[in-house]
Amino acid sequence: MFSHTASQRYFSTRGGSNSLSFEDVILKGLAPDGGLYIPEEIPSLPLNWQDDWRDLSFEELALHIFSLFISPAEVPPSALRDIIHRSYSTFRVPNVAPMVTLDDDQRNLFEFFLVRKNESKSGNDRSHLTTGSAAIYGLRAKKDVSVFIMYPTGKVSAIQETQDFVKALFADPLINKTQSLGAVNSINWARILAQIVYYVSSYLALRRSTSFNPANDHVRFVVPTGNFGDVLAGFFAKKLGVPSESLVVATNENDILHRFWQTGAYEKNPVHGPAAEGGFVEDGAKVFFSSGPMLE
User: Fold this and answer.
1) What's this model's pTM, rounded to 2 decimal places?
2) Among 195, 186, 24, 187, which residue's Cα sits nearest to residue 121?
3) CB 21 within 8 A of CB 1
4) Which pLDDT value is given to residue 149?
């Protein structure tokens, strides 16, 4: 793909797939080998981005960030601008609260590629940390998409049956060939990409604040553990060049990552609360793979 930079080509964290396009990884979500898709390279933000992007609208900022990871050969700039506008135009105030609309970017990209391919695709999501209802809402009225929300018997399951079942579906070549499954939860790179934008936006908001001194003040982002997608986006934002002294991950009794750092054992525990499956943190794999010795 000569029309793609390294940051616009993708591979599986388990090594089974490589040199994939943005369209490939968005429509698939989870790699056939069970790995998660990430870019071959995380680029650096432009040299003067803190000044040049300081007063951009959220939509304009998203266009710049998305363009780093999406080749114009796949999504022309005019089409990408339209997708972003449709994703964020529903806000009633100019100050976009990105967390509310993360799914819309992903769903609109999903629809764009499907309509262009002119084929129907089953959107496969599951009720994980309330993602199920978000998927239903985000995929409403989208063309060529059917969505199936999967959840454990009894709504909360200690054996993680939905997570295992979904992964088995993606690993089955016959089912993938006949059903054309795709994942639209946080394992999909489009979700992470949308989340990267609000880290950049948050830092630029600080830069516009008269009380913030970038020479002396330190930036720390504190986010919930969730499926580790939120902090993963912060991790990639930091690799892009967003100044951040630390990324703090808050947890509760669903503390698989805290226990992993303390004991070295990555083990399931019964989940607590309404989250359907808080036992395994899928996007943590992307951080472990991408960080290597950098991870502290």
Assistant:
1) 0.75
2) 24
3) yes
4) 66
Residue 109, sorted as left (phi over 0), alpha (psi -120 to 50) or beta, turns out to be alpha
**Tens of pLDDT, residues 263-284:** 887 776 665 554 444 444 554 5
Predicted pLDDT of residue 196: 94
3-class DSSP assignment, residue 25: helix
Orientation angle between helical segments 284-291 and 229-240, nearest 10 degrees: 30
Residues contacting residue 210 through CB under 8 Å, at least 6 positions apart: none
Q: Are 121 and 145 in contact (CB under 8 A)?
A: yes
- What pLDDT is stored for residue 3 in this prediction? 81
Which phi and psi angles does 222 have, rounded to 5°? -115, 120
Tell me the torsion sign for CA atoms 72, 73, 74, 77. Answer: positive
User: In sequence order, what E strands does the chain have?
Assistant: 10-12, 37-39, 121-126, 145-150, 181-183, 220-224, 246-250
How far apart (Å, rounded) are the C-alpha atoms in residues 286 and 229?
9
